[in-house]
């Protein structure tokens, strides 16, 4: 599945469009209430699973969540468009994250823009693409 067939290409496109719509709703809502509660839920889960307190500080949990939210885009995109590289997806993630933060900062008074979110989202874009690249290299290794 790391080299798509015409049928899987359609499903990957549908998945990317659906996830893109989900991201638009989550990232461009007028307030950060749902996002904050999601970070709180992840923090509670991490504590219950025994994660050390140093790793579950609220700022760190939020950073990780911001990275994870963009990973599916670059992972699905890397499978959908196999010729794109991890460099491409890192750049795309940076552009997407910067655009979202600009909209949040300039057009959504209940939201705030954050350079840390741009960094986290960009790392997430890198992470998803690298994950697919590693899987591809392992499958093609003798």
UniProtKB/TrEMBL annotation:
<keyword id="KW-0472">Membrane</keyword>
<feature type="transmembrane region" description="Helical">
    <location>
        <begin position="89"/>
        <end position="107"/>
    </location>
</feature>
<feature type="transmembrane region" description="Helical">
    <location>
        <begin position="12"/>
        <end position="33"/>
    </location>
</feature>
<feature type="transmembrane region" description="Helical">
    <location>
        <begin position="113"/>
        <end position="135"/>
    </location>
</feature>
<feature type="transmembrane region" description="Helical">
    <location>
        <begin position="53"/>
        <end position="77"/>
    </location>
</feature>
<dbReference type="Pfam" id="PF04892">
    <property type="entry name" value="VanZ"/>
</dbReference>
<feature type="domain" description="VanZ-like">
    <location>
        <begin position="57"/>
        <end position="135"/>
    </location>
</feature>
<protein>
    <recommendedName>
        <fullName>VanZ-like domain-containing protein</fullName>
    </recommendedName>
</protein>
<keyword id="KW-0812">Transmembrane</keyword>
<dbReference type="InterPro" id="IPR006976">
    <property type="entry name" value="VanZ-like"/>
</dbReference>
<keyword id="KW-1133">Transmembrane helix</keyword>
């Amino acid at each position: 599945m790391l080299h798509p067939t015409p049928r899987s290409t359609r499903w990957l496109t549908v998945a990317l469009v659906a996830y893109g719509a989900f991201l638009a709703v989550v990232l461009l809502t007028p307030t950060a209430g749902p996002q904050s509660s999601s970070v709180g839920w992840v923090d509670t889960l991490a504590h219950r699973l025994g994660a050390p307190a140093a790793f579950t500080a609220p700022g760190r949990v939020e950073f990780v969540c911001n990275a994870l939210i963009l990973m599916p885009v670059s992972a699905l995109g890397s499978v959908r468009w196999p010729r794109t590289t991890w460099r491409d997806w890192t750049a795309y993630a940076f552009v997407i994250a910067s655009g979202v933060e600009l909209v949040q900062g300039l057009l959504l008074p209940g939201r705030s823009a954050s350079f840390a979110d741009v960094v986290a989202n960009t790392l997430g874009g890198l992470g998803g693409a690298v994950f697919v690249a590693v899987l591809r290299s392992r499958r093609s290794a003798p």
